[in-house]
Amino acid sequence: MADSLISILPADYAAGHFLGRAQGPDGPCVIAIRGGRLFDLTQDVATSAGAVARKAFAGGTDLGPVEAGLPAGWTLLSPIDLQCVKAAGVTFALSAIERVIEERARGDAARAAEIRQGLEDKVGAGIRAVVPGSAEAAELKAALIAEGMWSQYLEVAIGPDAEIFSKSPVLSTVGAGAPIGVRSDSSWNNPEPEVVLVCDAHGEIVGAALGNDVNLRDFEGRSALLLSKAKDNTASCAIGPFIRLFDDGFGIDDVRVANVDLLIQGPEGYRLEGTNDMGQISRDPTELVRQCLSEHHYPDGFVLFCGTLFAPVQDRDTPGAGFTHKVGDVVSISSRRIGRLTNTVTTSRDAPAWTMGIAAFIRNLAVRGLVDRI
């Protein structure tokens, strides 16, 4: 565990502040990294959401240097617990184009290749240059409607309102090293490497993690009304490895220029690499948070996936069919200042069952005498 813990943290981890969770012998624990050392905060604050709400990142039991790894028998969990899990979609130009392709191909990967080039030629340059919600965006919309090319995906790409959806139930996210799931009846799907913003109940961004917003392109492509089935399945939401907390050395400007790199290594030797360049996002991350907060209340805070530029179109098996996952794919998502999140693909049917819901979590904390420290 010592080597794996070091390998998933950014190179400058000793200068940063991190919040995470781990499964200990008695149940979930809240852990922190500061000054290159690992701390157990659980006796002071028993939830990640509580630590964020109270900015309770100091104190705790010193578990030793990060180089020594987690205590024996401990494993990393997703760094969030009671926070709502939200996601923004179609926040990059290429992402918008790919969603339109899915819609027009009706979830058929083979047809997608026939549509892609012409749509990119007509829409790509204009959609990259326009500011969402601006007068220029309205003019582009009118022109596209006149050409019969308008789409609900272009509406959220360049219109005034971002696509914000609920990705996953509270406590259902998986962490670094855990299996990630795609539905067993999906034939066209992909990972989505993203920055995940961590916010308190008031919408203040306190840090950032990495996330895999696993997506089923065939389901959503058949109908946008299948978004929930395309996005919310057992083990389909990975977050980690830790939350890098904002401080004097890391903040929102670092998020704005972050590169999120993706590596997929298939069991048959297949290899795919890509990059999500946050500098190309169409809406500023703070604007996405503002729209997520909107007229909602998140008493335990929320996290927000910012969307991805990356859309895998590299053929895997059949020419023209593009990419889809296979069981056994190892997916690594990394960013220089945040760390590395690695998960292995299985089906949601075969992924470990999600058993610690809210009731079980509270019961566990009650047995440990920690309910008053939530």
From TrEMBL:
<dbReference type="GO" id="GO:0044281">
    <property type="term" value="P:small molecule metabolic process"/>
</dbReference>
<keyword id="KW-0479">Metal-binding</keyword>
<dbReference type="Pfam" id="PF01557">
    <property type="entry name" value="FAA_hydrolase"/>
</dbReference>
<feature type="domain" description="Fumarylacetoacetase-like C-terminal">
    <location>
        <begin position="200"/>
        <end position="345"/>
    </location>
</feature>
<dbReference type="GO" id="GO:0016787">
    <property type="term" value="F:hydrolase activity"/>
</dbReference>
<comment type="similarity">
    <text>Belongs to the FAH family.</text>
</comment>
<dbReference type="InterPro" id="IPR051121">
    <property type="entry name" value="FAH"/>
</dbReference>
<protein>
    <submittedName>
        <fullName>Fumarylacetoacetate hydrolase</fullName>
    </submittedName>
</protein>
<dbReference type="GO" id="GO:0046872">
    <property type="term" value="F:metal ion binding"/>
</dbReference>
<dbReference type="InterPro" id="IPR036663">
    <property type="entry name" value="Fumarylacetoacetase_C_sf"/>
</dbReference>
<keyword id="KW-0378">Hydrolase</keyword>
<dbReference type="InterPro" id="IPR011234">
    <property type="entry name" value="Fumarylacetoacetase-like_C"/>
</dbReference>
